[in-house]
Amino acid sequence: MIYHLAKLDAWTVAQSTGIYTGNPADRADGFLHLSTASQIEESARRHRAGESDLVLLHVDEAQLGKALVWEESRGGKLFPHVYGDILLSAVKQATPLSLNADGIHQFPDLGSDNGAD
């Protein structure tokens, strides 16, 4: 399983169309940014701090095919990127993320990480 931080409005549109096309920042970069279980909280802290309208998408990477590319970040870690849209059938769960009193996103237990770190 890999994970994506979706804006609520983009996720709402996806639920009516059956296709998730990403957030504006994803479209500007040309791919959808995803993370492994061990990367997602840091990604939220670095890139989405304080945003109260996020939904954590749990995505089955096996259903993404050739659109999924693991690419090295500036820090040398591999991150999953999707070059294209995500069909809703690949999204196994969508979890709204709340903020704690310090403005930090509260994540569910994501269990073991099978992604490439």
Structure in words:
With 117 residues, the protein is an alpha+beta fold. It has a single domain, classed as ADP-ribosylation fold, CATH 3.20.170. Helices cover 21% and strands 32% of the residues. The chain has three helices and ten strands, in the order βαβαβαβββββββ. It has helices at residues 8-17, 24-29, 40-47, and strands at residues 2-7, 19-20, 32-33, 54-59, 68-72, 78-82, 86-87, 91-96, 98-99, 105-106. The strands form four sheets. A three-stranded antiparallel sheet has the order 1-4-8. A hairpin with a 5-residue loop joins β5 (68-72) and β6. The radius of gyration is 13 Å and the shape is globular. The relative contact order is 0.28.
How are the SSEs placed, and which strands pair?
Blueprint: E1 2-7, H1 8-17, E2 19-20, H2 24-29, E3 32-33, H3 40-47, E4 54-59, E5 68-72, E6 78-82, E7 86-87, E8 91-96, E9 98-99, E10 105-106
Antiparallel strand pairs: 1-4, 2-7, 3-6, 4-8, 5-6, 9-10
**What is the C-level CATH assignment?**
Alpha Beta
Helix content: 10-25%
**N/C terminus separation:** 13 Å
Rg (CA only): 13 Å
Number of domains: 1
Q: Say what the CATH topology is.
A: ADP-ribosylation fold
Gist of the model:
The chain has a single domain, classed as Protein of unknown function DUF952 (ADP-ribosylation fold), CATH 3.20.170.20. Helices cover about 20% and strands about 30% of the residues.
Kindly list the characteristics that best describe this protein.
single chain, 117 residues, alpha+beta, ADP-ribosylation fold, three-stranded antiparallel beta sheet, 10 strands, 21% helix, globular
